[in-house]
Amino acid sequence: MDEHHPGCIRQLCPSPEIHDNRQWQSPIQFKPIKGLTRAIRMGTAYEVITDRILKLLEAGTVPWHRPWGGDERHPRNLVSDKRYRGVNVFLLSAAGYEAPYWLTFKQARHRDGYVRKGERGFPCVFWKWVDRDDPDTGETTRHPFLRYYTVFNVEQCEGIEYPDLTIPDRVFSPIQRCQDVVANMPRAPPIGHGGVRAIYDPQSGRVQIPLRERFDGPEAYYSTMFHELVHSTGHESRLARPGITQSIVFGSRTYSKEELVAEMGATFLCGHTGIENAVIDNSASYIASWLGRLRNDSRLVVQSAAQSQKAVDYVLDRQVEAKSV
Hints:
With about 325 residues, the protein is an alpha+beta fold. Helix content is about 35%, strand content about 15%. The chain has 2 domains: about 15-160, no CATH class; about 175-315, no CATH class.
């Protein structure tokens, strides 16, 4: 359940930490990084990025899914103003900072600032072509090398000035039927707007979601809201689903079931309010990504659908008598 996709119920997993000695503190030990970048084995570079993505997924964050933001939030280097590309966009966007500006440890010092002690850095990769001379033939060939280095968000630094983020005004047009669903949910959780994460926190029982104007459109906003509200129905004071009331492990059957419950329930509510055509592809791809885990468990999809129906009935305040599945 992710923080940049509807359905997050966990805090972001910490990324590798960079201390003053600039050494990775992670299950996989790396040598200290010298200078701005270092050349490394291509396989190791892939391991660094894969490890980061796995940590995000284990924390419930799907880095490439975020139905809010806009072009003005595209991650970029503070010094060069160049935009990051490729997988870096997903990894840095998933970090959860308001400011889109990033810089290296050295760049912070060159700007008479510093990275706060204990802050955690994020890997950033790029390709570099290297010429090699064949000692036997004398021919020069070009080979790709993958480099990575560590960057920090400006919000992790002190003494660094950066431009104010200018976000163009977006007009949010409420969809009344969707708004009615949210407003009329019985014993609804507190809902807060702001920040860059969509999350239902079982401990506080609160839903937090980005501002309406940040979403790609009202349909994306309500789809995200519905997903979080379905999660909230699992609270012990409502339907008491194990996926919310218990401590669960990423990838477990209970985890997968809760995530399917939330997304199926959101899809049902989108259909109820007539916005399913605008979000069905997104929901279908998200559900499909989880179904790969469930191929050997035919009962899980049926059970998840039944639980999601109960959640929808709760959100809509329907009194339906049905056997528990």
